[in-house]
């Protein structure tokens, strides 16, 4: 299934126009995206991740009328997700330390550029295939390094190196596109 900005936005608009199948398909596609987003930011807290994914899906459903059809869907989605993360940590009484600032900055760059309709898939196509697959697996689909390594039949260090190099290259490209 496609998870491009264009496809997700089309499903959202179709859902807003009364197509329940499009709305259900959108929510299903959002689960791995949100898991990846939260896992990147909340290390080692799978229960927290699942709670935030569910809270965000509920918010997407109940607040879908607030979506501006003229704007990028993923920018709206990640804004909702960030608010849900803040709400979650206020509710459970803990704050998340920022331990991987580079990953946070990369996610912020992707979200900011979704407003300019830069498509993640287009960006990943510019990378060597293994780097793109490992970024997709660990950052977008939410797999752990061990799970991605096992699925690809490579070592965990190879996954980490591929992700690091790919993210570094993407950061340079995204920053160049912003100028």
List keywords for this structure.
Rna Polymerase Sigma Factor, Chain: A; Arc Repressor Mutant, subunit A; 179 residues
Explain how this protein is built.
Helix 4 crosses helix 5 (101-114), helix 5 packs across helix 9 (156-178) and helix 8 crosses helix 9. It is globular and about 45 Å long. It has 2 domains: 5-92, Rna Polymerase Sigma Factor, Chain: A; 101-178, Arc Repressor Mutant, subunit A (Orthogonal Bundle). The model is unreliable at 95-102 and 108-118 (pLDDT under 50). It is built from 9 helices and no strands. By secondary structure, it is mainly α. Residues 119-170 form the RNA polymerase sigma factor 70 region 4 type domain. This is Sigma-70 family RNA polymerase sigma factor. One of its GO terms (biological process) is DNA-templated transcription initiation.
Overall residue-averaged pLDDT value? 79
Helicity level, as a percent range? over 70%
Shape: globular
Distance from N terminus to C terminus (CA atoms, Å) equals 32 Å
